[in-house]
Amino acid sequence: MTVLYRGPRGLVTHDVIATTETAWRSVPFAALSDVHIVRTDPENRALAPRALGVSALAIALATIPLVGVSSLPVAILLGIAVVCDVVAARARRATWDLLAYRAGNPAILFSSTDQREFHQLCRAVKRALERRGDDHAV
Fold this sequence. Notes:
Shape: rod-shaped
Largest sheet: 4 strands, antiparallel
Number of helices: 4
Oligomer: single chain
Radius of gyration: 24 Å
Distance between the termini: 21 Å
């Protein structure tokens, strides 16, 4: 039993795959069909809420000369909210899933937001499937 990949969240040999998604149970490649990759991008938020926040910030800043410094805390809070929204939007990452059918039911074999880790495991799965003669998967 040659180990093709061993990592903190997965193990791939010529015959089986075991990952955190399979509760470390060994799943034989012979029992799998239609092994494929699905990439899910983070949700793209609409521009309207951001534009609304920026316009509210601009209005709060514009009212400072009219109302006085009492609108300054509102402007500061709105500014902090806009900055937090921009930082959170950049922090979202794509999710990579390795899916297959086992006994006719869809199953997630591995899932990760770390592209490097995911592709290392998938490369090992591809080598194992090629050894079995299943060149069309992954």
